[in-house]
Write a structure and sequence with these properties.
Layout lengths: L5 H4 L6 H7 L28 H11 L1 E3 L11 E3 L3 E7 L6 E7 L10 H5 L6 E6 L4 E9 L4 E8 L2 E9 L6 E7 L7 E6 L23 E5 L3 E7 L5 E11 L2 E11 L5 H12 L4 H16 L3 E3 L3 H17 L22 E2 L3 H6 L1 H4 L7 H8 L1 H5 L16 E2 L7 H4 L20 H16 L2 H20 L3 E2 L5 E2 L3 E2 L6 E2 L3 H21 L6 H10 L5 E2 L2 E2 L31 H15 L7 H13 L3 H14 L15 H14 E2 L5 E3 L10 E8 L3 E8 L2 E9 L5 E4 L6 E5 L8 E5 L2 E4 L6 E6 L21 E2 L2
Parallel strand pairs: 1-34, 25-29
Antiparallel strand pairs: 1-6, 2-3, 3-4, 4-5, 5-10, 6-7, 7-8, 8-9, 9-14, 11-12, 12-13, 13-14, 15-26, 16-17, 18-19, 20-21, 22-23, 24-25, 26-27, 27-28, 28-33, 29-32, 30-33, 31-32
Helix pairs in contact: 2-13, 3-7, 7-20, 13-14, 14-15, 15-16, 18-19, 18-20, 19-20
Length: 781
Amino acid sequence: MPSPSRRTVLATGSALGGAALVGTLPGQATAAGPVAAGGGPVQGGPVQAGPDAWRTVLDDADLVWQKMPTTWYEGPYLGNGLLGSGIYQEPGKNAVRFNVQHSEVQDHRPQFGSLFGLARLPIGYFTLEPVGTITGLDWRLRLRDAELTGTLTTDKGTLTLRAQVTNALSVLAVEVTPSEGEAGFRWVFHPAEAKSPRAAFQPIPAGYEGNPPAEVGSYDGDVTASVQSLLSGGEHVTAWRERDRDGVRTLYVTVRHSFPKATARDKALAAVRDVARLPYDALAAGHRAWWHAYYRKSFLSVPDARIQRFYWIQLYKTASAARRDAPVMATSGPWLEPTPWPATWWNLNVQLEYWLIHGSNHLELDAVTRALGEFRDNLTAEMAAPYRADSLGIPRTTDIHLVNGGATSNAQGYGVGIPGEATPTPEVGNLTWALHNVWLSYRHTMDERILRDTLYPLLRKAISYYLHFLEPGADGRLHLPATFSPEYGANTRDCNYDLMLLTWGCRTLLESAELLGIDDDLAPRWREVLAKRVAYPTDANGFMIGADIPFAKSHRHYSHMLAVYPLYELTGEDADERALIERSLAHWVGFEGALQGYTFTGAASMSALLGKGEDALKYLGQLMSRFIQANTMYKESGPVIETPLSAAQSLHDMVCQSWGGTIRVFPALPAAWADLAVHDFRTQGAFLLSAVREKGVTRWVRVTSEAGAPCVVRHGIAGAIDVRDGHGGRKLSYEDAGDGAIRIRLGKGESALITAAGERPDLRISPVTPNAQAPRWGLPA
């Protein structure tokens, strides 16, 4: 039977998933069925996953250190989306550094642009200074509890520590139990210079200077604070107190930022006094409960031990770096180390940072949808004056309020370039691409509020900007004047980056308008664009950068291939299209020199689209061996967080894809992955997927509908099948949807279980056995 139309694919409802996006994380996360405490096989009953499933994979994924980490890229890290701490040896000293950074702390001088005047500002760090000389350590970052534990050994004794950045209270708490010889250890705070980190890498703008030095003092004898005044007004304040309870000493640290008023000090002092009344275990109880519930929202186990551990670490990292109400992740998340990238980047980084939240069922971390909706008015100022009435765009970089500072820091007086004019790098498509993330959040929840309140109005204005410049050529097709394909180095007419986003945007607007019942006067123009838009420029090697520029040099970015991934506008469903994708992919990754980590995550996901699991695994292997650091972080001149997180999405793409209205189960697995388990994986259409593969055979697939959207599943089970309700009881009717897929009618809250005909498989979810041992992440002995 024919596939559903794109209009049908977008069909919406008031979904349970939407509540997860705008609310708080529930105390439990068991949407796919009751949780079993263990026991024997479940024959034909509901899908069950005992708590030991999560405990097993998380404990196995813990990072360990039996050698001292000496850099940010080797050490443990803690965070809650706002406050972050990276931990490693103080360079050249017999001490351990605990960085203190905060995602809201930034400068407020827009006249110097986003990378200097609005840059994130470093705060400082504590050093844990033992009495004796450090001789060894044994640390473990316990993912399940989001807590660093272990022992530091010196020639005078031991320091046993526990550390967390508490989820709700946003406090760094470090408990240290010293042996007798180390009873005299001390903490020392080192304020950082409140100056853009970019100043160490790039020329400083004329007139720019750092903020005055911080002032450190004691308040009422029990709390110490470092007060950093800002030249623009306002301040950020680090306040701390140490409590000694029967020889066990706990350091409590918090950070507050205020602008334009200097109110942060009083808030920080009050906060740290309040929290210091609580012993460490009291703080830890609620913190651990939040994290336990967080992980239980989904489950994935693969037989590659190294990749499975990496995956669960990325889920930990994401929840350490992101919250819906926290700033959109800057390039390094809440942690700030020396970097030329002290801002939020919108021409790839943001998009890649948040992709994994959808499949892993963590929409509670979606800051992109929230920020674009909340700060949309700030984007108006980023447009040249003639376009502000009906257009929106987002520059390459912004601060946490989506302000670039270009309106006062460059000769043009705006942040988004004008196509066809002599403005440098008119990177026009960034907002449209960011709105694709918003569209993904809508599709994975079917929450109409996202579509109506954020996606549609912003996308309408983003596409309207393009419409000002589209002109018919001699060939009768619509063409774009010169724009910039991120990072390739020159402007080009009919830039594929923009043509591909323009096409997706017009199609999505038409479908959304129909869904929302809007008779939009721009709809005829959107249809004209889809009918008359010039073809994507290609040559013998595949996709070009644009009409004037072939792809002819090493280039890390896949901006010229967005129609393939992540937009899925071109999917290789006919032979010529598939050949074009394969040719373009091979040509792109064939140029060594400028390739970086996210080159290989993009290549892995494109390979997964083509069903090439071996290639996808090969690209992930190259990423791991060439780019991923000991603690799974990543660097390009400084810390950048998007690549490891996008690698988790590449793994998602191997395990499940749901573009085009069809859920594809296990679409691109390598042969070595004969066993696999997935539970409550969130797909487009607001479905939760659970499935198990054993000895190379998919044993069962279960889908639960949250919104009653059309359900088409390419299940991968060979031969005759049974489709029963979610408890494996009564049979459900279904239709053949072609190409190995079936169509099932499911209302809100209903489930379907797909098995081979006559089978009643064990429906427990449990970790699979790894094919081989692998070293832990961190610095094991």
